[in-house]
Write a structure and sequence with these properties.
seven-stranded mixed sheet; 2 domains; globular; 353 residues; D-Maltodextrin-Binding Protein, domain 2; alpha/beta; 42% helix
């Protein structure tokens, strides 16, 4: 990678010095011949800036960062289509990357370094995006209120034994949408629809929130017994150092649920290369950097996700809940079922106001 960096930076510097290829016909367009890369990201972690600073120190390429919600970034990318201002889009979930791909604001990319860093099942088949981290939705369980030996499988959550004991959040959360999409991919639409319907029968109707942190706090206050949440939500609360979060988190445990084959539906965070990126080569090098073995541990450690690079070790907090074995379908197979998953949940009555 360092050889490629030298060539790309040297070429950019030469072109800049000669004044070549810089168009004045479109003032809104980002400058082409500057040693920089611009990132649109949902993340707001100190470690990200530290990693970007390391990237600059190694390459001489400056990293400009624009932070916003995934929804706002998607709107911005669409508005800038044809006059791209960004090079890289870092998203909280493959759902948003798929929305960006469908809006034709991403472009394919592939290098040997990316192939070495990221197993193919974590990359879009056509190269439009790559995963950066992975995790799964499971159950937060109020300690002392449930026999966890009876909670191993997705089907266990549908048992009448949990009537009015399950806390559910927003079905439109991409990780939840991905869970149902994964069940559709592995069990079929009819089985997934029945599971959603049966799970909803166990819902505690008076407790709901768009925030998974609030669901875990409710569990700690004695409201319900189980909550369907992301694994890293529980761990982030425990690792926060803030009693507002650590105190309720210490009152719950976490379980990765499995299907009949002992596999779990997973989701990923990831990044895409923006269509017509002004600094494409530098953008690809940044993605190679972020998926590298050395960088993966701090990058995913900030969110307490599992690294996507198989050579990188997870944060120590993740050993507290153990890992999971992933379902076999490729990520692209899961993303094709997002729309069906949304319809299944809507028809079953899983809505959020």
């Amino acid at each position: 990678m360092l050889h490629r960096i030298f060539i790309a930076v040297a070429a950019a510097a030469l072109i800049s010095a000669c004044g070549g290829n810089q168009s004045n016909s479109s003032p809104a367009a980002a400058p082409q011949n500057v040693n920089k890369v611009r990132v649109y990201t949902h993340r707001n972690y100190t470690v990200d800036q530290q990693l970007f600073t390391q990237f600059t120190a190694r390459t001489g390429v400056q990293v400009e960062v624009v932070k916003d919600t995934d929804e706002a970034i998607l709107d911005r990318l669409k508005a800038e289509s044809g006059q791209a201002q960004a090079d890289v889009y870092i998203a909280s979930n493959a759902y948003y990357l798929e929305q960006a791909r469908l809006a034709d604001v991403l472009q394919p990319f592939s290098t040997q370094v990316m192939s070495d860093n990221v197993p193919s099942r974590y990359r879009d088949n056509n190269g439009n995006w790559t995963a950066l981290g992975r995790n799964a939705v499971g159950l937060a369980v109020a300690i002392g209120k449930a026999d966890i030996s009876k909670l191993n499988y997705y089907s266990d959550l549908a048992s009448p034994a949990w009537r009015n004991q399950l806390l559910l959040g927003n079905p439109n959360r991409p990780s939840t949408l991905g869970l149902v999409a994964g069940l559709i991919a592995t069990e079929g639409e009819a089985a997934a629809a029945k599971w959603v319907s049966d799970v909803l029968k166990n819902r505690l109707p008076d407790v709901t929130s768009d925030s998974e942190y609030d669901l875990i706090k409710a569990l700690a206050e004695g409201k319900g017994t189980l909550a369907l949440v992301q694994a890293n939500t529980v761990l982030q609360m425990k690792a926060s150092g803030n009693p507002e979060f650590t105190a309720p988190a210490e009152k719950v445990g976490f379980i990765f649920l499995k299907n009949k084959d002992d596999k779990s539906v997973f989701y990923v965070t990831g990044a895409g290369l923006v269509r017509d990126a002004p600094h494409r080569d530098f953008a690809v090098m940044l993605l190679e950097f972020l998926t590298g073995e050395e960088q993966q541990q701090p990058f995913t450690g900030a969110t307490l996700d599992f690294p996507i690079n198989p050579m990188s070790l997870p944060n120590d907090f993740l050993y507290e809940i153990g890992g999971f074995f992933e379902i076999k379908p490729h990520l692209n197979t899961l993303t094709t079922h997002y729309g069906t998953a949304a319809n299944v949940m809507k028809q079953a009555g899983w809505t959020f106001q």
